[in-house]
């Protein structure tokens, strides 16, 4: 069975709405990236060195990241040789197969959050201004709430104007309470309050927003350390997750931010937002392969239900949906 057919079968086992979300959210990337790959395979008559070089350019242009592209194309060369592939059109399936492989071989792929079965789970959100922390907290609160969990939010971004109000709007929309203090107050004090409230209300999950200023690494580290220390003192095993939010539309900048935060704090997972807003969705692979932190969620839009657990197969299907459908149908006929 071809890889496309297998992929189609795997996808079909999952909920249709998840497939739709990934497919819709990846429209821009698909239009850009897979059209270029389509064009490439139809222009070449044989798979030669020029073909691979053009492919490298396409991948780099989609923000896949230099090192990852080199690794990927090396794998492709080997596979094409091993299978003795002559027809460029046959390379398409191998490309998608290798994209899934490269994602999964980079280590832990579980998107599961470390949720405590008895007692409070504390999830801390970090990331620079504007990447989508507050929005993602709202979406995640909605997800937990709909699973029947008792959720509380902590308005730890006391720095940015309007940040507390923005979280409150999400709280109302989703139907969860927000623990806050005035603008300009010490975020660590907000966290202390929030943990106390969470305990006294028997909350299942406390999600903490933080300010995203990144004037320099020393300040960032100090602020995050202080916030974490307060949380840890009140709940010794917490924070159970530290989720770093990155904006997919910022490309290599997101990579730099990730490296900075990785040095400043123990990041347990990445949320990559605004995948719907970029034609360069290859950044997922770069982040995964070069940082070795699992991408736990992706943001595929601004609505409450536009946060999805990352899934490499859904992602690759979203990149090549039209070809996968066509090839799988042809194979069915044969
Ligand atoms: P914060 O400063 O990190 O808290 O970022 P915000 O949550 O305020 O988000 C900044 C902007 O990004 C807002 O306009 C959000 O609606 C938008 N945003 C966040 N996530 C997504 C996403 O997945 N897709 C799209 N299209 N927009 C998003
Ligand atoms: Mg915010």
Automatic annotation (TrEMBL):
<dbReference type="InterPro" id="IPR042101">
    <property type="entry name" value="SRP54_N_sf"/>
</dbReference>
<feature type="binding site">
    <location>
        <begin position="127"/>
        <end position="134"/>
    </location>
    <ligand>
        <name>GTP</name>
    </ligand>
</feature>
<dbReference type="InterPro" id="IPR000897">
    <property type="entry name" value="SRP54_GTPase_dom"/>
</dbReference>
<keyword id="KW-0132">Cell division</keyword>
<dbReference type="GO" id="GO:0051301">
    <property type="term" value="P:cell division"/>
</dbReference>
<dbReference type="GO" id="GO:0005047">
    <property type="term" value="F:signal recognition particle binding"/>
</dbReference>
<protein>
    <recommendedName>
        <fullName>Signal recognition particle receptor FtsY</fullName>
        <ecNumber>3.6.5.4</ecNumber>
    </recommendedName>
</protein>
<keyword id="KW-0675">Receptor</keyword>
<keyword id="KW-0131">Cell cycle</keyword>
<dbReference type="GO" id="GO:0006614">
    <property type="term" value="P:SRP-dependent cotranslational protein targeting to membrane"/>
</dbReference>
<feature type="binding site">
    <location>
        <begin position="209"/>
        <end position="213"/>
    </location>
    <ligand>
        <name>GTP</name>
    </ligand>
</feature>
<comment type="function">
    <text>Involved in targeting and insertion of nascent membrane proteins into the cytoplasmic membrane. Acts as a receptor for the complex formed by the signal recognition particle (SRP) and the ribosome-nascent chain (RNC).</text>
</comment>
<dbReference type="InterPro" id="IPR036225">
    <property type="entry name" value="SRP/SRP_N"/>
</dbReference>
<dbReference type="Pfam" id="PF00448">
    <property type="entry name" value="SRP54"/>
</dbReference>
<keyword id="KW-0472">Membrane</keyword>
<dbReference type="Pfam" id="PF02881">
    <property type="entry name" value="SRP54_N"/>
</dbReference>
<keyword id="KW-0963">Cytoplasm</keyword>
<dbReference type="InterPro" id="IPR027417">
    <property type="entry name" value="P-loop_NTPase"/>
</dbReference>
<dbReference type="InterPro" id="IPR004390">
    <property type="entry name" value="SR_rcpt_FtsY"/>
</dbReference>
<dbReference type="GO" id="GO:0005737">
    <property type="term" value="C:cytoplasm"/>
</dbReference>
<keyword id="KW-0378">Hydrolase</keyword>
<comment type="subunit">
    <text>Part of the signal recognition particle protein translocation system, which is composed of SRP and FtsY.</text>
</comment>
<dbReference type="InterPro" id="IPR003593">
    <property type="entry name" value="AAA+_ATPase"/>
</dbReference>
<keyword id="KW-0547">Nucleotide-binding</keyword>
<feature type="binding site">
    <location>
        <begin position="273"/>
        <end position="276"/>
    </location>
    <ligand>
        <name>GTP</name>
    </ligand>
</feature>
<feature type="domain" description="SRP54-type proteins GTP-binding">
    <location>
        <begin position="294"/>
        <end position="307"/>
    </location>
</feature>
<comment type="similarity">
    <text>Belongs to the GTP-binding SRP family. FtsY subfamily.</text>
</comment>
<dbReference type="GO" id="GO:0005525">
    <property type="term" value="F:GTP binding"/>
</dbReference>
<keyword id="KW-1003">Cell membrane</keyword>
<keyword id="KW-0342">GTP-binding</keyword>
<dbReference type="GO" id="GO:0003924">
    <property type="term" value="F:GTPase activity"/>
</dbReference>
<dbReference type="GO" id="GO:0005886">
    <property type="term" value="C:plasma membrane"/>
</dbReference>
<dbReference type="InterPro" id="IPR013822">
    <property type="entry name" value="Signal_recog_particl_SRP54_hlx"/>
</dbReference>
